[in-house]
Design goal:
There is one protein chain. This protein has helices spanning 3-10, 22-31, 49-57, 70-83, 120-130, 151-157, 167-176, 189-209, 213-233, and strands at residues 39-43, 62-67, 89-93, 107-111, 137-145, 179-186, 237-246. Strand 1 (39-43), helix 3 and strand 2 (62-67) form a beta-alpha-beta unit. Helix 2 packs across helix 3 (49-57) and helix 8 runs antiparallel to helix 9. It contains nine helices and seven strands, in the order ααβαβαββαβααβααβ. By secondary structure, the protein is of the alpha/beta class. Helix content is 44%, strand content 19%. The protein has one domain: Rossmann fold (3-Layer(aba) Sandwich). It is globular. InterPro entries: CFA/CMAS (IPR050723), Methyltransf_12 (IPR013217), SAM-dependent_MTases_sf (IPR029063).
């Protein structure tokens, strides 16, 4: 099975697609305090959970969602229709790094999608290109090391020791890129567990209901992921979502 399809199936019961609860997602979006008729962009929107909630909270806002996943964008369109916000949401199937908007945005999101740009630093640079000068906000979700990873875990994750910083270092990296951190949410272990149990369990249930090569592949992916989580990064890899404001230039 294609990785994209496995991810789509696994997120079926947790479309936020990050270790963030629904209540915390809403709190972060509310904290942004967007202006009237705000323009919102999500680079790597997946199934559009952040955008559809943002449009529900801000009835006069419009939004663009960018992703490569055809199934994810289809799910985003369906959810937008269910919530009655489809007329204010535009979806684009294109690489996030290639997207160019017609006008700047009041809020740009990239939550758990920094891989689309090759890491945190290029993600922050790309986000800045889309922000409304002076007033634009960014909401960026990124992993961090809760404690130093072992060499074995780094091999399993295919990661380098400096791929993530600790929490303080992650904040420092964002501020070094020209942003001021004005709010944030550090995902709890309960949020991580809910996300991972949902990811592996939803995929396992689908696999059991679809015997055959696809079901076998999905079940193997679920078990591999669960092993990597429970025997590997649980309690080691954290996740933080930070609300950022462009910092004024120095000097």
């Amino acid at each position: 099975m294609e990785r994209e399809l496995i991810s789509h199936l696994a997120h079926g019961d947790h479309p936020i697609a990050a270790p963030v609860s629904e209540s915390e997602l809403v709190r972060l979006l509310t904290r942004a305090a967007l202006p009237p008729r705000a323009r919102i962009l999500d680079l790597g929107c997946g199934e559009g959970a952040w955008l559809t909630r943002a449009l529900t909270l801000h009835p006069d806002a419009t939004a663009d969602g960018v992703d490569l996943s055809e199934s994810g964008l289809a799910a985003a369109a369906e959810e937008a229709g269910r919530r009655g916000v489809a007329d204010r949401l535009r979806l684009h199937r294109t690489p996030a790094a290639d997207y160019r908007g017609a006008e700047p945005y009041d809020l740009v999101l990239s939550v758990g999608a920094t891989h689309a740009f090759g890491g945190l630093a290029p993600t922050l640079a790309a986000v800045r290109d889309h922000l409304r000068p002076s007033s634009g906000l960014a909401l960026v979700g990124e992993g961090f090391w809760e404690r130093p990873p072992t060499a074995e875990l780094l091999t399993v994750l295919g990661a380098e020791p400096d791929e993530y910083a600790d929490l303080a270092g992650t904040v420092e990296r964002m501020e070094a890129a020209g942003y001021a951190v004005i709010h944030g949410h550090t995902s709890t272990l309960d949020e991580w567990d809910e996300y991972e149990w949902s990811w592996t369990g939803t995929l396992t249930r689908w696999a059991l209901a679809h015997p055959g090569p696809d079901g076998d592949a999905a079940l193997a992916a679920a078990r591999e992921h669960r092993q990597m989580w429970l025997r590997g990064y649980r309690g080691v890899l954290g996740f933080v979502t930070l609300l950022l404001h462009q910092a004024p230039p120095t000097g």
